[in-house]
Amino acid sequence: MLFIARLMLSFGVLCASSSSTLRAQAPGAPSAGTGPAATTEPDDPAPIPATIFPHSDRSRFLIVGQTNIIFQAHAPFHSPYDGDNSLQARGEYKTSLLGTLYLGAELIRNPRFSTEFLLDFESSGGRGVSQALGLAGFTNLDVVRNPSLGSKPYIARIQLHQTIGLGGSLRESDRTPFSLTTQVPTRRFDLRFGKMSLPDVLDLNSIGTDSHLQFLNWTIDNNGAWDYAADTRGYTYAGVVEYDDRSFSARYALALMPTVANGVDVDWNIRRARGENVELELRRGLLGPLLRSDHKGAVRLLGFVNHANMGVYRTANQNFERGLTATPVITDHAPATTVKYGVGLNFEQELTSNLRAFGRFGWNEGQHESYAYTEVDQTIAIGADYAMRRYNRPLDKGGLTLVSNAIKRDHQQYLKLGGEGFLLGDGTLHYAREDIVEAYYNLHAWRGVFYSLDEQIVTHPGYNQDRGPVMVESVRMHVDF
What we know:
By secondary structure, the chain is mainly beta. 7% of the residues lie in helices and 40% in strands.
């Protein structure tokens, strides 16, 4: 962590002499800038610097960084029993630290045919409550689910980003760590190859995507039923092809799956293991036809198919009932490629100049083991955020969301019989949906410094009626350098 901080401070000083500022991601904007374009209200005051150091949007190079520190705690809660993978019922507190250094270079600067090289270093330290176990909708997206990996810096992303214009006019584009060019063709192909996180480019939502400035729960910032290809840190090697037009986009991603559930290593044999994802995005206000409103909105439909060495919950249950195993063990099967598939839907809609609503729905077939993201077979979320412009706090924002997660019957029975997944396992199960309410307020303190208060109430943690509810309080400090 200290290594990352020193690098960011050193590079920040070098960039501070620049006369113009980087068009930084605004609180609530999609991390990759592919959603509805951010707008500036006509009566907005002069822009407030959203980074510690100024950065040029004319330079061929990009050097920026961020640090996210989250203190999280919960009081003791009702729990007549627990297991190895349970959220601990005793009161506990933990702190996580995440630092990222984003580097980028425009190799070809022609806006109609631009080529960029992106390289990110990351350090993830600290811990999550209960070592990030016991919740399908875990309360801190920054936490790495394998604490034994430590905080040694690693390469999070390394990729080539190619834009191929297909004609039409150029439009302005915000510079972000994932896209350096400030002008893009209205009609274009956007290609990415290398190491990345699939939520960098898929399932984006400008209200519920960014755990650094928005919600913290990982089934709010991502679709919990989307078991997207990733190692335990959330990254994989992938190729993404995207077509963008004025009002819609289409994306396809082929990615490497981990060798084992929640594993550190990925399987390089794509004939044996791979994740295939397709997404259609329509950037159009949902209220326009009803209210003759020009408020912006978007709808995104996502589908995925995973091929990997995944176990089958029903088979694990049957092997236990036949006396072949002491408890159901989802990983106790002959190596074989199986298929898991699912769909997701997310939307966002401006209601007023300050109020926005969003929602997600996700479903997967649930017969095969949860393998890469979390133990959710079906999810639904609805929420909103509110910007404090009218109170002269243009970068302050508050949000409120309800998410409800579920698993299928075979998955329920597996946990009831004492089976363990890579996140859940109380030893038995009295099933109910895992319902979570999260609220936050994000305060802009100075330049790129933000502080947040966050509250999450989890009913039936780990889908268990016998345990909980539990309230998880968080304090977050975020710094954009």
